[in-house]
Amino acid sequence: QVQLVESGGGLVQAGGSLRLSCVASGRTVTNLRRAWFRQAPGKERDFVASITWIGSSTVYADSVKGRFTISKDNAKNTMFLQMTSLKPEDTAVYYCNIPGTSYWGQGTQVTVSS
Questions:
Q1: Which of 9, 21, 26, 29 is nearest to 93 (CA)?
Q2: 46, HSE (Cβ side, Cα atoms, 13 Å)
Q3: Does the pLDDT at position 109 exceed 80?
Q4: For 48-102, what is each residue's pLDDT tens digit?
Q5: Is residue 30 scored above 90 in pLDDT?
Q6: How high is the pLDDT of residue 19?
Q7: Which of 21, 24, 100, 107 is the most exposed place for a label (fewest CB within 10 A)?
Q8: What is d(CA 87, CA 95) in angstroms, rounded to the nearest whole number?
C-alpha cells in the first residue's frame, strides 16, 4: 500500500503564490510518473501537471503553463507544485496521484480570492 499526503494549500489573493507538497510513503512504487490533479466544486477532476520519477520530464495542462512548476525530491519521495500568478479559477482541491494506480492523496484546498 502507498500513502500520499498533500499539504501547502490555503487562501491567497489573486496574483499570489502557493507551494504544494505531496509526500509518498509505504510500499515502493516505481511507476514512471507522478501527477497533480484538481477538482473545483461541481466539476470533474482535471489534470494539472505530471513529472517522470526518473529524470524530470514534465507535462502541463494549458491552463497552468507558464504559471505552475512541478518538481520533485526523489530522496525525500516528495513532489511539489509551485503555483504563481494564481487566479480565482485555480480554486480547487488539489490531489496528487500515481498514474495507472488507484493511489490518491486526500487533497489540499486552494482558494484564490479576487
A1: 9
A2: 16
A3: yes
A4: 999 998 888 999 999 999 999 999 999 899 999 999 999 999 999 999 999 988 9
A5: no
A6: 98
A7: 100
A8: 18
Type of residue numbered 48: V
Residue-wise DSSP of the chain: -EEEEEE--EEEETT--EEEEEEEEES----SEEEEEEE-TTS-EEEEEEEESSS--EEE-TTTTTTEEEEEEGGGTEEEEEE-S--GGG-EEEEEE-TTSS-B---EEEEEE-
- What the block records as the C-alpha cell of 19 is 507551494
pLDDT at 32 over 80: no
Q: Which three cell numbers stand for residue 26?
A: 509505504
Instruction: List the grid coordinates of 39.
Output: 477538482
